[in-house]
């Protein structure tokens, strides 16, 4: 479903060149939940932007559902970290969710049905008429997730979506992300700084090196499909996986030239 081959991205301008991605190759089959972790600044967001058609690669190829990415692909939705800036404050929650459906040409009655279903799926069945600024940060991020799933994407890209909420809300949103993935069966690529979060959520954890960025390791997460914040995180296998990922990321940071 997602194919990234020898992806390289160099930002230029103002006499400064930054090689955000060196040579990244990665395949995500349809329906998988894959997490991407790596040292700060290694190009995780850049990778998602190239996949989402928001940035052109310097070289290499990016394909979504067999089609080369030349702009935002059909059937792909992105949830960003900054929910405060991704929702329109002057539109009610239901109108925020409806907007992409309108541009897709979905009729009014069907829009209503999809909005209700998506809000219920994220536990906000009663918030349709509220404005985003009347909701807590965690609730706003639920609205952003509802808007993404209302679009019925085949691919969902998530860029550190829970980094700005408190720990308890974050745990709830992590479980919501897995529930939504299991229910709607989309392919998910989830970028995070948080190693525990990556191991808890993913079927695979892809570790990126420091610049020049490549895939350091692609690890299968052999935890049971049914995960639980307490039982899964306190298990021996979880501890082994997280310490493995942690030590690889530490090595990657130390290997960084000049750090
Ligand atoms: N628009 C841009 N112009 C120039 N350089 C950029 C631009 N966007 C990102 N960079 C640089 O590219 C590198 C990778 O940035 P990116 O945000 O993709 O990394 P990241 O792994 O997501 O970072 P973090 O973990 O801190 O969120 C960084 O050195 C960053 O400064």
Evaluate the radius of gyration. 18 Å
* Bound ligand species: adenosine-5'-triphosphate
- Give the end-to-end Cα distance, rounded to a whole number of Å: 36 Å
Mind telling me which CATH architecture of the largest domain this is?
Answer: 3-Layer(aba) Sandwich
Find the count of extended strands (DSSP E, 2+ residues). 10
CATH class of the largest domain: Alpha Beta
Summed up, the domain count is 2
Q: Please, how many helices?
A: 8
Main β-sheet description: 6 strands, mixed
Task: Assess the beta-strand content as a share of residues.
Answer: 15-25%
Helix content: 25-40%
Low-confidence stretches: none
User: Which H/E pattern describes the elements?
Assistant: EEEHEEEHHHHEHEHEEH
What best-fitting shape do the alpha-carbon axes yield? Answer: globular
What value does the average pLDDT take? Answer: 91
CATH superfamily of the largest domain: P-loop containing nucleotide triphosphate hydrolases
Oligomeric description of these chains:
single chain
Identify the strand order in the major beta sheet.
6-7-8-3-9-10
Describe this structure in words.
- Pfam families: ABC_tran.
- Keywords: ATP-binding, Nucleotide-binding, Transport.
- This is ABC transporter.
- One of its GO terms (molecular function) is ATP hydrolysis activity.
- InterPro entries: AAA+_ATPase, ABC_transporter-like_ATP-bd, ABC_transporter-like_CS, ABC_transporter_ATP-bind, P-loop_NTPase.
- With 259 residues, this protein is of the alpha/beta class.
- The protein folds into 2 domains: 2-75 and 154-255, P-loop containing nucleotide triphosphate hydrolases (Rossmann fold); 87-152, no CATH class.
- Helix content is 37%, strand content 23%.
- The protein contains 8 helices and 10 strands.
- It has a 6-stranded mixed sheet with strand order 6-7-8-3-9-10, with helices on both faces. It has a 4-stranded antiparallel sheet with strand order 2-1-4-5, with helices on one face.
- Helix 3 (93-103) runs parallel beside helix 5, helix 5 (137-150) packs parallel to helix 6 (167-184) and helix 7 (195-201) crosses helix 8 (236-255).
- The longest helix has 20 residues, at 236-255.
- It is globular, with a radius of gyration of 18 Å.
- The two termini are 36 Å apart.
- 39% of the residues are buried.
- The mean pLDDT is 91.
- Residues 11, 18, 20, 38, 40-46, 193 line the site of adenosine-5'-triphosphate.
- The site of adenosine-5'-triphosphate (ATP) has 12 residues, from strand 2 and helix 1.
